[in-house]
Amino acid sequence: MRVIDTHAHLWRRSRTPQPWIDPASMAVIDRDFWFEDLALMQRQSGIDGAVLVQSVNDTQESVDLLSLVDGRAVLGVIGWIDLEQDVAAQLAALREQPGGHRLLGIRHLAHLDLDPEWLLRPTVDLAALGDAGLPFDLVVRADQLGIAEHAVAAHPRTRFVLDHLGNPPLTSGDLAGWRHDLGSLARHENVVVKLSGLTLQTDWSNWSVDDLREPVDVALDHFGPSRVMFGSDWPLVTLASDAPSWVDIVRELVPTALHDNVFGGTAERVYLEEHHA
Q: Which residue in 122, 116, 158, 124 sits closest to 140, CA to CA?
């Protein structure tokens, strides 16, 4: 079984600052992470290749990440463009860069945008991504899932990938609202989800695998294995665990019969088969 990691980050802070990293509480990731670090993590975790995901709303970062595409450790990139400007021209420019044939999707940090309803702006051209055959990664807070659902409903020809299961509020213990909104999203066939980032929604120093069982079960029940895929969220995963442990946790929580889809098949269909030149 080929294990594809659909959600990994790399950064060199001299080029891509990460001001959100707190040196005290996030000391383990308070440094640069680049190709050699990724390759080592993959060997330790039994991961065969990764999709790199943007971490800042900056086109230059996307160019830098595309330059790392080698078809092995780095399979492709979810980049960033300004979706309120000429989308087709920006995509063409990125695709002309080294590795640009492996631009696999676009993401915007909607959960951090000063406008919490950025996804619903009439100037945000999500339809153009559908026209270009590229999915849009949704990174939203749990309280923004309703907004995401409206955006998805308005763009049935664009495929959406929900990162981190929409960040269920695990520390509060009240998942009712998240469960309802996830179910609403699941009714749209153009949405798939990533099993990623869940440990970051826990108390980092005091959590158990059982804390993650409900959100994983809910995701599988709502979406089915053909619309669920694995992501490490490395290196952020190391804030509460580590990448090899997260692989093992997903293997434990996902029934064995579904592993082929979750660990590779869904990613192949969503990113690697349908969206490369």
A: 116
Pairing relation of β-strands 160-162 and 228-230?
A: unpaired
Q: Which has the closest alpha carbon to 41: 17, 2, 74?
A: 74
Predicted model pTM = 0.97
Domains and CATH numbers, the chain: 4-273 (3.20.20.140)
Q: Give me the percent of the chain exceeding a pLDDT of 90.
A: 97
CB 247 within 8 A of CB 46: yes
Judge contact between 74 and 48, C-beta under 8 A.
no
Residue 114 has pLDDT above 70, yes or no: yes
Task: Give the burial class of 133: count Cβ atoms within 10 A of its Cβ; 0-12 exposed, 13-18 middle, 19 or more buried.
Answer: middle
Where residue 273 falls among pLDDT bands split at 50, 70, 90? Answer: confident
Strands (E) in the chain, as ranges, are: 4-8, 49-53, 74-79, 103-108, 136-138, 160-162, 191-195, 228-230
Distance of CA 100 to the CA centre of its chain: 19
Burial label, 206 (beta-carbon count in 10 A; 0-12, 13-18, 19+): exposed
Residue 161 has φ and ψ, to the nearest 5°, of -120, 115
Q: Which two tokens stand for residue 247?
A: 């692989």
